[in-house]
Design goal:
- The structure is a single chain.
- Helices cover about 80% and strands about 0% of the residues.
- The N and C termini lie far apart (about 40 Å).
- It has eight helices and no strands.
- It is mainly α.
- About 35% of the residues are buried.
- The chain is globular.
């Protein structure tokens, strides 16, 4: 029963779902609907969907243990795929004339991923925890209630990752630290 609950929490708190939810809320709060949709589609088709397909294909081929790429040694190839994609998305957003908040937020997310990649050489980072904390900071200025809800739910997400044996306590702490550092940067620079 615990594993079933942990699996549901882990799926609801998946980094890609949190990023998508944040993007939709944020983009529609700063842009008119047409610009918000265009910006969302740029990010979706140049960044998120390629990563989804990459992870699905590599999982199906047995190169990844699961979609979340839970084995540390398998994560290097995911980071080497996602980082160039993220830079390409940032370039496309800049070319599209996005405001500084979008560009800076995207750059800080890339920084989070770069730091996770570097840490991955010695330890693994819980991206579930890091992205939960990071998006909570992102929501703070536009909807503090959602931010508070994410901060409150972050221990549950950490528990779910530990319960499913996807992370050790230190990996969860790395996720917390990265989320806090990059989240504080969001509040500082945007």
């Amino acid at each position: 029963m615990k594993n079933k609950i942990a699996r549901i929490i882990s799926q609801v708190g998946h980094p890609l779902l949190l990023i998508l939810a944040f993007l939709i809320y944020f983009l529609f709060s700063i842009h008119n609907p047409e610009k918000a949709i265009l910006t969302f589609l740029i990010i979706l088709f140049l960044g998120i969907l390629p990563l989804v397909f990459w992870n699905l294909i590599r999982t199906k081929k047995g190169l990844y243990s699961n979609f979340d790429v839970s084995i540390r040694s398998q994560r290097n190839s995911m980071y080497l795929f996602v980082l160039p994609s993220a830079f390409f998305v940032l370039l496309a957003l800049w070319a599209n004339g996005q405001p500084d908040a979008v560009l800076i937020g995207s750059a800080i997310l890339i920084q989070l991923l770069c730091l996770a990649f570097v840490i991955n050489f010695k330890s693994k980072v819980s991206l579930h925890v890091a992205i939960t904390i990071f998006t909570a900071f992102g929501f703070w200025e536009i909807n503090p209630w959602i931010a508070i809800g994410l901060w409150i739910s972050s221990p549950l997400i950490a528990w779910s990752r530990w319960q499913l044996r996807r992370h050790e306590p230190m990996e969860l702490i790395w996720g917390l630290l990265l989320g806090l550092i990059c989240g504080i940067e969001i509040l500082t620079f945007i």
